[in-house]
Structures are given as structure tokens and as C-alpha cells.
Amino acid sequence: MIIQNSKFYLNTCKQQNGGAIYIQNKILMGILHIDSSQFIDNKAFLSSGGAIYLQNNNLIIQNSEILSNIAQIGGGIYYTQILPDFLIDLQNGNSNNNTFMHNIGHIYGQNFGSTLRKVYIDLENIELPSGSQKSQQNGDIQIHKFKSGDQINFKKIQLIDEEDNPIKFDNINSANFNLLSLDVQALLQQISISIAWDQENEQIQCIGQLQTKQYQNGGYSLDVQVFYKPLANIILKIESNILPQIKDSQGNIAVNSGQIELNIKIELDQCSIGEIFVQYGNSIACQQCPEGKYSLSLNDKECKECPDSAASCKGSNIQLKRGYWRENENTDNILYCSLNPLPCQPQLSTSKFNCDEGYKGPLCQSCDTYGKIWGESYAQMFNPNFCYKCSQNKIKIITFNLLIFILISSYVLFILKRIILQLEIKIVGYYLNKLDMIYLGSTLNQSDRSQIISKILTDHLQILSFVCTFTVNIPISFTLPIQLPGNTFTMTSKSIDCVFSKYQNLQPLWLFQSLWSFSLPLGISCLYLLIGIICKFFKVNIFIKYFRTAALFIYFYFFPMVINLASRSINCITIGDKKYLDLDLSIECFDASNHKPYIFFYSLPLIIIWGILIPVYLFYKVYIIKQKKQSIFMTIKYSFFFEGYKDKYYYWEFWMLFYKTNLILVSELLKQNLQVKVSIMNLVLLLYFYLLVKSKPFTIQYFNNLQQKSIILCIFSLNLCFISIVGVQNNLTYELILIILLIFANLFFIFILLIGLSRLLIPTKKEDRNFIQNVIFQITKRYPQILDVQLQNKQKIKSLLKLRRVKLRIKQLIKYLKGYDFYSSQSLQQFFNIKKTQNISELHKTQEITQILSSEVSDEKNIFVKNNNTLQKLRNQWSYYTRNTNSNQTSLKTSNQNLHAINYEKDDYIMETQNSLQNSKNITRNIQFQIQLSENQN
């Protein structure tokens, strides 16, 4: 058939194929020649071939136009069985001057329609398990890191026509589908998509939706769960239904009959953590642990139950509860943050490595000083269990460090001042006795009172700071005042970490924190020295003169803190399967670069020098002084160690160092074994209590009693802390009661020590007391062991010292102490003319002074007597206190014993007396001289 110079325009075929021309040859192939013709706006609304429909027919077309034709399949031309020659020419680039434009095939085939050519799916429409990867290579789909038992979802699988356009139509069950021609319906009903694999391999199994005819949402959808074995390869195929064969006009096969397909090449990976191997028929599958179970090892044969410390589990994911920590996601060694559970916040979406903002490291106990995790620097300040953001707390950091220095300096300097003044009193009293001016007896020994009580207070605070270190629920309002004087280094060592954070080359951080702690004792020493230099400028040498004593006191005060710091620098904390440095839990123990070298260059030398050599040297000096009876000046300078103790227990202060060192070592080295730690600490405390009760090292029993109460209270506090952690941890009511008992007991004892330190004075006569003084007097009278107060008579011993000749001798002594060599016994003898060759003349002078004093008493009696009985009593007292010391040693010893008995055992208390000895106008500070006299009130 030949068509030339023709025009087919606006032809329509509603139910049949071919809007303009329909040609069908059943036996032999037909040939249609078209030349110089036009096919425009022809329509086959419900069928195929908008302009031309060809069945078993070849088409040769030249110089023609096929424009704007419409059909369901093949908007321009639809053909079957024979591939027309003009298409072969067109595929080879020869259009034969033909034009094919604006033709529409609603289902597929815009210009030309025939058999579908291939299967296609976009990579974005392939859904794989997390961790698997996909790619496309040489027309095939590649899937990597896929596991046996995993599922693949194929969405929008497309069948492509010869013009590379995808098929599209409504679901075959829709109403519009039934309107199509029977040929089109039959064609579409035959289209199907399925999954195929090597059926000969029995180990390969696929389950799921493996075949479909439903065209929905722009394509076909399949899902398949693949079972084979780990570390193997498998090829799946997405296939269509069987499509007819097409030949060219020469009888050659142009399109094979059969299925069009798309290869899916899968590389099976090893099972992941969180999955276990499961036998599935002949296959081996990787099965993920379900909700409530987990697995963290490839060797696990079954999933483990979710632990109590976790809120939920699935696969390899373990969601921890608040207050718990683990080193990483690959371990189920879950630890409770016993040191401080507050920073452990794994349940928060904002947490990192199971830690709250600002925290890091094992158990979240370290602050992110260098900002490597949180991007900003954090450091500890007031509360050792809380990390503060450096950028928001610059003023607080400065204030905190200044406040610590001021408070500790004030505390230490206050005690030093009282100690030094007492030492001055002893020297003055010593020479008053030597000059036979007035006998002071045991009154000088009582001047050690504040020194001894300050020791007991300091020891109690230091021991208390170690016995309750494992309790985190105690309010900071109580622990801070205890830690401040008791273990200041725990607060100062990390107080300027925000400064260190700007210099990341300062490594390891724990070493510089430790070195910074020594700035406190050095700063206090320098401050004392500065005060001494200033006072010396004003002609007051008292502080410079006792600098050695001050240095020794500062050493003893900070001794346990340094030992604690040094022991922690070599101590290791076991957390999980690793050991970490106690001072910095972010550093592994004995780390080759950040720990081990500094043990030999810092920690051990510090322990040997500070903890062994210096105490041994000081003990030797004290031993020499006590054995060889050194001069009063050398004795006074070292009297800090043995004053208040009996002569045979002069070493007791060194025993206290050993005792506190043992407590520190037990507290630090056994901090992870709580029960053993508490047991051994109880034994050490009880042993010391036994030795204290048996030895009674203090000369005055009242101080022995105070020390015993301190030990009992420390034992009580230790066990209360232990019970609050172990016994009533989950009972907030009982825990609160225990904490209140702990706080109240210690505060009451500290109050008693402060009262004793200040030496509260109450008038002897009732009419001279106020209401508060009366209350304290009644409490003291009923319970004399609770509060230590002193009754004060208005009649002072200073009235007796108004004697002109006595005052003259005292002024001479002060003048000597001011202007002459304080340490030269020879110059003292020269000044007072008491050389051995002048003993006889001095004896006459002493007798003369005694006579003068007796006359002065009678001349000035109107100054301090009110009646004849009182006058007689004062005269008797004066003769007692001015008697010759060499001739009355027996009576003096008896008097001393009576004095102690009166001071601490009778309900009638002593009459305190004071005398202030002033220097010249150039001296700006007073040398305070206290004299206590005892009187048995009838």
C-alpha cells in the first residue's frame, strides 16, 4: 500500500486501534509506503495508535509529518511483530525527512508504541537497613554491607518503553481502566513485576512480596527479605512478565521474546554488633536483638536481657538510667556514679558520652577544662562536685580564690598571733621568776590553753574532712566550712583551672593543679613575713623574731593536706576494666607521658621530703632540746611541739602526724572498698582513743577529755556517713535524720572548742552578771565538762603590780628586751648586774626589794582593799607570790597541783588577772602579759 501527498486530519477512533489508519496482516508481512503526507490531530482515545496502527506490517515513510496525535499507547504509531524500517533508519540517525512531534501516549509510547524494553528503579527508591550502601554500575544495582536476614524495599519500579519513558496508568481495579479497549486492558493485565534468584542454591531464601501487578503511586513495589550466609554474594533479579518477540523486515530478531530484567548484586556482610546468628532453614541469618534485649559481641549465641541499670535496650543500643555511666557504646560494664551521680545524665538528648554539659571522663567526674568536648571551658570552684562555665564565672573565680586565701590566712595568723603572744608571756614570766620579782608558778603553763585548744580544733576538722569523704548527700553548707580549714587543698588545687585552660601546653593538668595548691602555704608564709617586716619598720620585732615558729606551725598545719595530695598522685582508681589516676580520672594510671614520669620526679620526692625527712629532723631537734636542756630561747621556739604535754610525752605531736597519715592513706587508698576502708579507719581511731585514755598525754586533764571527745565524735561521724550510704540509701527520711545528727554533733563540739579558745569570762558576783552570763554560769555549774568558762573577780592582780619598785623592774626588763640582744644571757646579766661574782650583793638587793615591797603594800593598801579581812588576805597572797623560789620548791609543787584542781574540778572558779605591759611610744604593739591567780572562794 502506498500513500502519497495525503493529509489525515482530526480523525477519531473510539473503541478500535488506529485513529487514522489501521493495517493488520495475519499470515504474511505487509508493507506500507507513505510519502509527503501529513497525520495531524488524529485520536484513538481508548486504544493504541493515535495516527497509525500496524500489526505484522512494515512501514516505509518519507517526507511526512506525524503531529499532535493522541492514544493510550503509541500516540503517533503503534506496531507489533515487525520493527518498521523507518525506525531502524531513525535509530541510525536517518530521519528520511520525517517529523514526529507533540504526539501523546497516555500509558506509554509518545511517538512510537510497541513492546516495553527494560526495568528501571531509581536508587532513592530502594530502602535498605541502616549501614547498608547502594550504587549503580553498568546498569546493575550494587548493594554493599548487607546482612543475611535483612530486608530490601523496592519502591516505584518502572517499565521503560523504547523512547525511555516509563509506563503510567491507573490501577487495573479502577473505573477508568474498564473504559479502555479490550486490547489495552489485556496488555496491561499481563504486565507484572517479580523477584527472581538462583533457585538451584538451596541456601538462598527470599520471603516477602516477591511479585505484583499493582501499579500504584507511580510504579510497582516489592519487598524481599534475603537469607543466605554472611560474607557471601548473591544476585537478585527484578523481572517483568514475558513479552512478545519483534523482528525486522528481513526476519532478524530485533527484540527477544521473554522477560526484561534488572540485576541486583548484593554483597553480604558479617553480622553487626547487636545481632546474633540464627539458623533459618538452610540459611544463616543475622537477627537483631528485639526490644528489651541486647548483644555487644559477635560471639553471642543469644541476646541478653536488658540490665536494671538501663531504661531500654534494642540491638546494640543500651539506654542507661540517670546516674549510670559506661566507658563507650561497646561495653555493658555499666557503673553507678557513686562518687557523684548528678553529672551522669545518659538519658538526656543533650548529653555526650553519658555526661551532662561540662563534664567528661570516667564516671563524669572531670570537668572539660580545655573545652575539647563541649566547646567551652569548665572548671570546679565552690562545690567540688559541680563544673562551672569559665566564661560566665570570671569574677567568681577571682573572688573564690581571694576568699579562701583571706579566710585561711586569717585563721592561721590568728592562731599564730595567740601562740606568739603566749611565748612572749612565757619569756617575760621566766625572767620575772629568775629575778625573784614575782613567782608565777603554773600560771605560765596555763597560758598554753589557746594553743592546745587550737591544735585540737584543727586536728578535729582535718580528721573529719577525711572520714566523710565518701558521702555526697551532706549539704555543702556543712562540708564547705569543714573542708576549708580541714583540707583546703581539695578546694584550691582546681580553683584556677580556667586560667590553665588557656594554656593547653600545661600538661599534665593534675601536676599544675598540685603545684598551685602550694601557693596557699607559701602565700601565708610570705604574708606573715611581710607583716613582720612592716612591724620591724616600726621597731616591733616580735613577728620577725618568731618566723621559725610560724614556719613550723604552717608546716604542721598543712602536713596532712600535702600527704593527702601526694598519696592521691600515685593512687589508682579502678573504673570498669581500667585504672585511672586519682587526681585526674581522665588520665590512665601509670600513663607513659602524663603520670609515670612524675611519680619519680614529683610524688615520691614530695612524700620522702615532706612526710619523712622533715618530721624526722624536727623530732631530732625536739629530742635534743628536751634531753640537753637548751636555752629558754631555743626551747621557746620549738615549744609549739611539746607545750601542754607531759614531759615523757613530748613526742605526742609527731605521733599525731603518724596517726593522721595512716587515716589519710586508708581513706585514699581504700576509697573504692568502702566496708574495708570504714573498718580499718574505725580500728585506727579506736587504737588512738585507747592510747589517749591510757597515756593522758596532756598535763591538764581537761585537754585529754577534749581530745577523747574529738575521737569519739569522729568515730560517730564515720559510722553515720557509712550507714547513710549503705543502710538507708533509698530512705530519704532516715538519711536526713542521720545527716542532721552528724551536723549537730560536730557543730556543738566545735562550738565548745571555740568557747574554750576564746576563754569566756564571767563575773564572780551574781549582781555583776547579765542574763546570758547567768545562764552560762548555771549550765557550767551543773555540767562543768561541757563549757569551759572562767569566773573573774573585779580585784585584779594588776592592783598588786602598781607597786613602784615592781613596775620599775618590769620596765627595765622591757627596756632590755627592746634594745639589747634578746638571745644573749651574758648581756642580760650585765644589764641587771647579776653576774656570779655579784651574787652576794644581789642577795642584799633582793632583800632590800622585799622590804621595800612590804612597805609599798602597806602604803598603797587603799588602792585595792575594801576591809581589814581583804587586806590581810591580799598581804598573804603577795608574800606567797614574791617568796624566794629556791627555798620553797615543795610548797610550789603543792600549789601547782591545787591550782589545776581548782581550775578544772571545783564549782568555784578561778579569779583571772591581767596586766598589760606597754613598750615605749615608738613601739606600736603591746606585749600582752597574762597572769592567772587561783583562789578558793568560801
How would you characterize the overall build of this protein?
The chain is α/β, with parallel strands linked by helices. The protein has 4 domains: 2-113, no CATH class; 118-277, Sandwich (Immunoglobulin-like), CATH 2.60.40; 394-758, no CATH class; 797-933, no CATH class. Helix content is 41%, strand content 22%. It has 25 helices and 47 strands. The strands form 16 sheets. It has a 6-stranded mixed beta sheet, with no helix packed on it. The N and C termini lie far apart (157 Å).
Layout of helices and strands:
Elements: E1 2-4, E2 7-9, E3 12-13, E4 21-24, E5 30-35, E6 38-40, E7 43-48, E8 52-55, E9 57-62, E10 65-67, E11 70-73, E12 77-80, E13 82-83, H1 85-91, E14 99-101, E15 104-108, E16 112-113, E17 118-120, E18 126-127, E19 133-137, E20 140-146, E21 151-160, H2 182-190, E22 193-196, E23 205-209, E24 211-212, E25 220-227, E26 233-243, E27 246-248, E28 253-255, E29 258-268, E30 275-280, E31 283-288, E32 293-294, E33 304-305, E34 310-314, E35 317-320, E36 324-325, E37 335-336, E38 359-360, E39 366-367, E40 378-380, E41 387-389, H3 394-434, H4 443-446, H5 449-467, H6 476-486, H7 489-492, H8 497-500, H9 509-517, H10 519-537, H11 542-545, H12 547-568, E42 572-575, E43 578-581, H13 596-628, H14 632-642, H15 652-669, H16 674-695, H17 701-726, H18 732-758, E44 760-763, H19 771-782, E45 789-792, H20 797-800, H21 804-819, H22 825-832, H23 839-859, H24 868-881, H25 889-905, E46 911-917, E47 927-933
Parallel strand pairs: 1-5, 2-6, 3-7, 4-8, 5-9, 6-10, 7-11, 8-12, 10-14, 11-15, 12-16, 13-27, 20-29, 44-45
Antiparallel strand pairs: 17-21, 18-21, 19-20, 21-25, 22-24, 22-26, 23-25, 26-29, 27-28, 30-31, 32-33, 34-35, 36-37, 38-39, 40-41, 42-43, 46-47
Helix pairs in contact: 3-10, 3-14, 5-6, 5-15, 5-17, 5-18, 10-12, 12-13, 12-15, 13-14, 15-16, 16-17, 17-18
